[in-house]
Design a protein that fits this description.
Distance between the termini of chain B: 15 Å
Structural class of chain A: mainly alpha
Shape of chain B: elongated
Helix content of chain B: over 70%
Number of domains of chain A: 1
CATH topology of chain A: Helix Hairpins
Radius of gyration of chain A: 22 Å
Largest sheet of chain A: none
CATH class of one domain in chain B: Mainly Alpha
Radius of gyration of chain B: 23 Å
Oligomer: heterodimer
CATH topology of one domain in chain B: Helix Hairpins
CATH architecture of one domain in chain B: Orthogonal Bundle
Chain lengths: 226, 245
């Protein structure tokens, strides 16, 4: 039992036979680095050597802010694209906010389909999970909770293409960026809507509104993760 | 450029971790294999497939949170205290995973719980952070009045707050952990950092050792530490990002 536990902690999967692919080869370590930097932290795999643990701490110290800055940039860039889209439809005051709401709604639905509804299908097919389990995994991952009870690419009885985990990592990054953008735009819109409600219909306000559009928010409004 | 730095950073981490962890993994795998064959060889009544099934069962049990190294399997991890700690690990997005819902209803509840709990947690952390910031600024203003320093007071207070926070949240708790959990200082520090950054691997979790007795205040104090430590760390990261920009 003790040997089993020890092996499990070091990343060896005792369920397979002796020709298991390593859990610490480059592709899987890349995936692991991604889970550290995004603070998902599954934990099914974690450094067991002292050097590895210390490295992990300092790696995360610089990696987590880097990840936040990256997601922030991605979110801002996507937001800018959304704004140019909005500018095609120029309508004053209330109608513009309505228009923005519709665009946001479309954006939300596409994103939900792409990141929350569709991937579980892929996962349940590749991993042999039920759709519910796939959805549970998707949600726990994108919220960066990352329990680690379900992790892609860890079943020793299945054959995965070598880049499977890396592709999943890319999906995670984009999913997180989408979530960050949703929060950003949502908070932005809420602010504008509240402003519009407090100051009644006013022509000077419409001009003030368009200048607000071009202003970039002062502080990064990314709140995930913390 | 940021994209390139990001991917490069991931690659760097991957390479280093691979170099550090792979040898240990290989060694452990060989050890396991030797033990496996020895067991089968020494006890001829034991058969390969049966042993394999047992191993799978053990791994499943381990995954669902049962500790196996005592005489009896330790139950009662989903008592109120354990479940409370689980709720904390969920809404703070730490997500240890040593304990996770296995029933379908439990999982659905977990998802809904997190959906509302995470924003709630963020709002609370923000508030705590603001309070801390106000406290620091208050002290800085006090110092300015008393000592007639201008910009230096605020800088001094911020460094002071940083150092106090560092001591309180990262450097001193590992001592408590080594006393109560029997970890080394380095393991305690590793656990503190992984928890406060919300990465939360779950390879180390407090209060999970069935051979130890914990005082009744232990888990509550740790929960408070997690809350304030996360708020402090979030402030620090915000400052770092501001300075970078």
């Amino acid at each position: 039992l003790q040997v089993l536990m020890e092996a499990w902690e070091k990343g060896v999967n005792p369920e397979g036979n002796s020709t298991n692919p390593s859990n610490w080869d480059f592709s899987n370590s890349f995936f692991f680095a991604g889970t550290v930097v995004t603070t998902i932290g599954y934990g099914n795999l974690s450094p067991s050597t002292v050097a590895g643990q210390i490295f992990c701490v300092f790696y995360a110290l610089f990696g987590v802010p880097l990840n936040l800055a990256f997601l922030n940039q991605l979110g801002k860039a996507l937001n800018a694209h959304l704004l140019t889209l909005e500018r095609w439809v120029q309508k004053p005051g209330r109608a513009q906010v309505k228009c923005q709401f519709t665009i946001l709604a479309i954006f939300l639905t596409t994103g939900t389909l792409l990141f929350l509804v569709f991937p579980p299908l892929v996962f349940s097919y590749v991993e042999g999970w039920s759709y519910g389990e796939g959805f549970y995994f998707t949600f726990i991952t994108l919220s960066t909770i990352g329990f680690g009870d379900y992790v892609v690419g860890t079943n020793p009885n299945k054959h995965y293409i070598p880049v499977y985990r890396s592709l999943t990592a890319i999906w995670i990054v984009f999913g997180l960026a989408w979530l960050a953008l949703v929060f950003n735009v949502g908070a932005d819109l809420m602010e504008r809507y509240l402003q519009l409600k407090w100051h009644k219909s006013d022509l000077s306000l419409a001009e003030g509104d368009t200048t607000k559009l071009e202003d970039e928010p002062e502080q990064p409004r990314i709140h995930i993760p913390s | 450029v940021l994209l390139a730095a990001y991917v490069g950073y991931l690659g760097l981490g991957a390479a280093v971790l691979q170099a550090l962890e792979r040898p240990a993994e290989v060694q452990a795998a060989q050890h396991l294999l030797r033990e496996h064959w020895e067991l089968l060889a020494n006890h001829t009544c034991l058969q390969g497939p049966a042993l394999q099934r047992l191993i799978e069962g053990i791994i499943q049990a381990y995954k669902s949170g049962i500790t196996l190294q005592g005489n009896t399997t330790s139950l009662g991890r989903w008592d109120f205290s354990g479940s409370f700690f689980f709720s904390i690990s969920t809404i703070t997005t730490i997500g240890y995973g040593n304990l996770s819902p296995s029933t379908a209803t439990g999982r659905i509840f977990c998802i809904v719980f997190a959906l509302f709990g995470i924003p709630l947690n963020l709002v609370l952390l923000n508030e705590i952070g603001q309070l801390m910031l106000l406290g620091v600024q208050h002290c800085a203003r006090h110092l300015e009045v008393v000592c007639h320093w201008q910009n230096k007071a605020s800088f001094l207070m911020k460094t002071c707050a940083l150092v106090t926070g560092l001591l309180l949240f990262l450097l001193l708790p590992p001592l408590l952990f080594s006393d109560k959990e029997g970890w080394s200082y380095e393991e305690g520090f590793y656990y503190s950092f992984i928890t406060l950054s919300t990465i939360g691997f779950g390879d180390y979790v407090i209060g999970m050792n069935p051979d130890r007795t914990y005082p009744s205040w232990y888990k509550n104090v740790i929960s408070l530490w997690i809350l304030f430590g996360m708020a402090w760390l979030a402030l620090v990261i915000k400052f770092c990002i501001n300075i970078l920009e």
